[in-house]
Write a structure and sequence with these properties.
This is Putative restriction endonuclease domain-containing protein. Residues 11-188 form the Putative restriction endonuclease domain. The chain is of the alpha+beta class and 196 residues long. The chain has helices at residues 11-16, 40-55, 89-98, 123-139, 188-192; strands at residues 25-28, 31-34, 64-65, 69-71, 79-80, 84-86, 101-102, 111-115, 144-149, 154-161, 164-170. A hairpin with a 2-residue loop joins strand 10 and strand 11 (164-170).
């Protein structure tokens, strides 16, 4: 749902915008687009993955982020807020230097994770994560894009190959394969159950 505002917003205005609620927005063609209520379990999945990268992969905490904005250039959005980002040293330095946003043209992150909200009933949510974001994230060179879909009990891992993501789906006790994180030792079920 697009929120009625007095005027179109610039990217800088969007980054400073606060309506006093916990509503999450993305900037779409200069207009605020409400992202909808996040399923609390989806947040648990993102937090589980953050903890996994910290504990099991011994990843530096400073390179893991929930709530960071990524600048994209498409007809659908100007900025996206993934559920989890695993930064490269360079993308981490770029967002810290900017203070607000990993801008288009900055060094790319290693991984972006999106946990789909209500993919069976919300076509907009499904299309955003399955159709729009893969194109946007590939254009800025993010090496790997995961789509975690609790409704379909599916984890899709997309590896950036020749400018587009090549996806492989994982379900149940299938071990997730990652080109970027070859030492990964996770099953789809473990991710979909937030580690339980």
């Amino acid at each position: 749902m697009t929120v009625a505002t007095q005027k179109r917003m610039s990217l800088e205005e969007y980054l400073l915008y606060d309506d006093g609620t916990n509503t999450r927005y993305e900037l779409v063609d200069g207009m605020l687009a409400e992202m909808g209520a996040e399923n609390p379990f989806n947040v648990k999945i993102a937090v589980f993955l953050l903890a996994y990268f910290l504990q099991e992969m011994d990843f530096p905490y400073s390179r893991l982020a929930i709530g960071h904005q990524i600048g994209v250039s498409s007809t659908k959005a100007t900025a996206r807020q993934p559920d989890l980002i695993v930064h490269s040293d360079q993308s981490d330095a770029a967002i810290v230097a900017d203070g607000k946003l990993l801008r288009a043209g900055s060094p790319p992150s290693l991984l972006v994770v999106e946990v789909v909200s209500n993919s069976k009933e919300d076509k907009r949510s499904h299309d955003r994560d399955y159709l729009e974001k893969p194109v946007e994230y590939a254009e800025i060179g993010i090496l790997e894009y995961w789509i975690i879909d609790p409704d379909l009990a599916l984890v899709k891992v997309g590896n950036l190959i020749d400018g587009a993501y090549q996806f492989q789906g994982f379900t149940g006790n299938n071990k997730i394969a990652s080109l970027t994180f070859s030492e990964l030792s996770l099953t789809a079920a473990k991710v979909l159950n937030a580690g339980n």
